[in-house]
Amino acid sequence: MARLSHWLLASTTAVALMAGTVQAQEENRFVMVTHGVPSDPFWSVVKNGAEAAADTVGAELEYRAPSTFDMAKMQQLVEAAVASDPDGLIVSFTDEDALGGIVQEASDNGIPVITINSGGDVAQKYGSRLHVGQSEYEAGKQAAERMQEMGVEKAVCVNHEQGNQGLDQRCDGFLEGFDGNAEQLATTYDPTSIRNAIVAYLNENSDVRGILTLGALAAEPMIQAMREQGATDMFTLGTFDLSPGILEALEGEELDFAIDQQQYLQGYLPVMFLDQFAKNGLLPAGDVPTGPGFVTPDNAAQVLELSEQGIR
């Protein structure tokens, strides 16, 4: 009987140790919700970064985004993410009116939130722990300054997602940097509509010599329009963000500059930070800027190699 009791005690201890091991190895689950439409190559790089970080730390990552730029749909996705009670939430904070209350709810319920890409200037009002991205307004001003240094006196900012807080701030900074000598051209994100809108605008505004687009969805139709019109050399062309097409245009000197906010880090870093917070209670003390930096024809080839790997 003593031997049987000893065996039962040993078995119970082993089961308890195994249960403790399973609990210790349980994965953290993080949800990332962005406004990035599937056709935008920028967001595939963000997702690559987030997935790489999740693999590194052994976390489960759920990436969610609407099929079109739709703030009502994104609001629903964030609400569903909060309701699922993840160990951390990552959100591109594109509209504080639509998303602020939900982020506050997540924070109030003990879900740590990190915002990325957009809304870094207001997100902390709603309980966000920190922001990973760039100052969109200042980046827009820097784009204006660079164009003026290149001799541009009048320019246009092409906004393919009006109502996206980050893109609106980019245009606002650009217009401020030109001190009244620039306008905003609002379009949809449909490539044909963007191309036609740019051509029509330039035909009506012959004194405009600088064009700034706010991402690959607008930059690539702009570049195509310039090629078709044989007008690449007539304008100073700049854009925000990178894609293989943008980098090829830079390398071929069809584009003068692209503003790089290192979107891979906007996916990678929040996952790493949230994992450290869940495990050890550690977070950076403030926001983490990932840009702006400028890619030009001089360094495009180096960046293109990383773009082919899904990192830039």
Automatic annotation (TrEMBL):
Keywords: Signal. It is found in: Periplasm. GO terms for cellular component: outer membrane-bounded periplasmic space. InterPro entries: Bact_Solute-Bind_Prot2, Peripla_BP_I, SBP_2_dom. The keyword Signal applies. It comes from the Bacteria. CDD domains: PBP1_ABC_sugar_binding-like (cd06312). One of its GO terms (molecular function) is carbohydrate binding. Its main location: periplasm. Pfam families: Peripla_BP_4 (PF13407). The keyword Signal applies. Residues 1-24 form the signal peptide. Residues 38-279 form the Periplasmic binding protein domain. One of its GO terms (biological process) is transmembrane transport. Belongs to the bacterial solute-binding protein 2 family. This is Sugar ABC transporter substrate-binding protein. The lineage of its organism: Bacteria, Pseudomonadati, Pseudomonadota, Gammaproteobacteria, Oceanospirillales.
